[in-house]
Structures are given as structure tokens and as C-alpha cells.
Amino acid sequence: MISIWFFIGISLAVNGALILAAGIYQLISPPANPSVVLFNLHANVWWGALLLVVGLLYSLRFAPKR
Prior knowledge:
Layout: H1 4-28, H2 43-61
Helix pairs in contact: 1-2
């Protein structure tokens, strides 16, 4: 059987990669007038990286055995 946590890890990793990519894009070309108050903290980069790491850890830990 394949654990549900394996698929949750894949989902977290994919979402984290997308959020991280969007955050890096905003670092490269920031908006002229950011409407977010704490834009300079770049929360999407931090949370995207965290989700990516946690998702990879879950995927590796609960990967189906060969």
C-alpha cells in the first residue's frame, strides 16, 4: 500500500515550488507600488521554501518501498 502522506508530501512540494517561484519572480521584478504592507519581508519566498522542504521530507520519508 502507498501511504496517503506520500501524496500529501508531493502536493506540499508542488505548491511550495510554485509559491517559491512566484516569490523569486517578485524579487527579480518587484511591483512599482506594492499594496501589501510588509512586502519587504518576502513571505512568499520563505513559505514557499518551507513548504517545498517539508513536502520533500514527507515524500522521501513515506515513499513506497521497492
